[in-house]
Amino acid sequence: MNLPNKLTLARIGMTVLMVAFLLLNGPVWAWLAAVMYAAASLTDLADGRIARKRHLVTNFGKFMDPLADKILNYSVMIVLIPERLIPVVAVVIILFREFLVSGVRLSAAEQGRVVAANIWGKVKTFVQDLSLVAILVLRAVDVSFLEPLSNGLLWLCAALTVISGAIYLMDNKDVLEDAN
Prior knowledge:
This protein is mostly helical. It has a single domain, classed as CDP-alcohol phosphotransferase transmembrane (TM) domain (Four Helix Bundle (Hemerythrin (Met), subunit A), Up-down Bundle), CATH 1.20.120. The protein contains 7 helices and no strands. The protein has helices at 3-23, 27-53, 59-80, 88-110, 119-141, 146-171, 173-177. Helix 4 packs parallel to helix 6. It is globular, with a radius of gyration of 17 Å. 31% of the residues are buried.
């Protein structure tokens, strides 16, 4: 197994630890969860760059890398919903887009086509990662303005999710038209 794929699998393992830290009470656990999320997010940047630079792109990586990202991000969001740090409707919007995009990618794959991520999806992912790091750090600090700020950040992510999803669908409408 090559290094990028090991980083992808490490991100999944880090997610399990991070969720455990999120479920434990206390500032130390909150900080550990924030640091673990940030580190796991950085592995996402690293694995793709290393795979492309060293020509180590594999089918396993193409499939597991985006899956590991979804496992990481949605685990955080779902765990924080009961704490009212994440607006449920924003999470539903974000998940809806992800399932829709995954469906288009699966349809494209059945047609022998590969649908690459566009810049809007990358911007959405960057803002989402940054927002979740900020929310986790604010949670660890336990400041009074946490809830409105964290909700605002996730609503920004939801808006970017809708924009990136709409652009993705427009750019790939031929995949949907060619689906049988």
